[in-house]
Amino acid sequence: MADLDFDEERIILTPLILYIDYVIIQYNNYLKKNFKNITPRDFTYLVNINYHKNISQRELAERLFVSESNVAQIIKRLEKNGLIYRVPDEDNKSRKVINLTEEGKKIYFDLINIIVEEEEKFFSNYDEENVVLLKKMIYDYSNKAIENALYLNSHKE
Fold first, then answer.
1. How many CB atoms lie within 10 A of CB 121?
2. How many helices (DSSP H) and strands (DSSP E) are in the chain?
3. Can you tell me the mean pLDDT for 74-85?
4. Residue 135: pLDDT above 90?
5. In angstroms, rounded to a whole number, what is the distance separating the alpha carbons of residues 32 and 18?
6. CA distance 31 to 35
7. Continuous segment of H or E residues that includes residue 50
8. Which phi and psi (to 5°) does residue 83 adopt?
9. Whole-number Å distance between alpha carbons of 15 and 138
10. If pLDDT is split at 50, 70 and 90, which confidence band does 156 have?
């Protein structure tokens, strides 16, 4: 019994989602203090719009697991703030596609650079192999959470 380390036990027994939540809380606070035109959720939208050029509102809703009306509200605000623009799809004029404006790209790249710099500082005491492993594990964890949510939602009564 004397060789138990209760702090270590507590760390191991605490669900990972709690630690992720702590990181997100600090990230959200940083955004609120330093970016007036963008909310924490907006960055998720900007990342997806950047990665998936010419994405439609419906595709964005599906990708982010939110309703189209939720996407419509955020897209409207992002457009009003000059971060995105919508244009008719060249192949289907009744469909509009969304892309980042130059200002949206600037904010996206500013935030990505800040996040990468902070990660580099944090992970400087870890070997690259462990950092890659952690990122892959969290990526897998997020995919499993998505799969589980989709499974649970399809089995609602």
1. 9
2. 7, 3
3. 96
4. yes
5. 21
6. 5
7. helix 40-51
8. -100, -20
9. 13
10. low
Distance between CA atoms of 25 and 139, rounded to whole angstroms? 19
| pLDDT band of 1, cuts 50, 70, 90 | very low
Q: Bridge partners of 84?
A: 100
Q: 136 is written with which tokens?
A: 């892959």
Neighbours of 145 (CB within 10 A): 11
Q: Which residues contact 99 (CB under 8 A, 6 or more apart)?
A: 49, 53, 54, 84, 85, 87
* pLDDT of 120 above 90: yes
Per cent of the chain over pLDDT 90 is 57
Tokens of 34: 């330093």
Q: For residue 63, how many other CB atoms are within 10 A of its CB?
A: 16
Vertex 124 angle, CA 50 and 41, to 5°: 30
Asked if 111 and 43 touch (Cβ cutoff 8 Å), the reply is yes
Averaged pLDDT for residues 36-59: 91
Interatomic CA distance for residues 1 and 5, integer angstroms: 9
pLDDT band for position 105 (cuts 50, 70, 90): very high
